[in-house]
Amino acid sequence: MEVRAVSKYLRVSPHKARLVADLVRGRKVSDALTILKYTTKKSGRLITKTLRSAVANAENTRSMDVETLFIKSILIDEGPRLKRWRPRAMGRANRILKGSSHITVVLAEK
Q1: Which residue, among 22, 23, 16, 36, has the nearest Cα to 99 in the 3D structure?
Q2: Which of 20, 57, 78, 89 has the most CB atoms lying inside 10 A of its own CB?
Q3: What is the pLDDT of residues 49-72, one digit of tens each?
């Protein structure tokens, strides 16, 4: 049995979020939360929030045992980009693309 949680439109680039997601993919939930707690990156906090939501979904809607849960998959998809402009010399401008991410966490029982 599986349970999932999705966080959308998070203001962190997908590339940076995938670096943190790779640390916890396939691990037990308790181990993953410990790793994320000591991760200094912004995406660690956002992934922790999504993971806790998935655990709550498992507990409350599916009556699953939290001790046996592990991260079956964690996906970081690209969300829409915010387009901004930076003024440059001689009246020119450079485009800045600020990325966003969609985080999907799927948990399963061992």
Answers
A1: 16
A2: 20
A3: 999 999 999 999 988 999 999 999
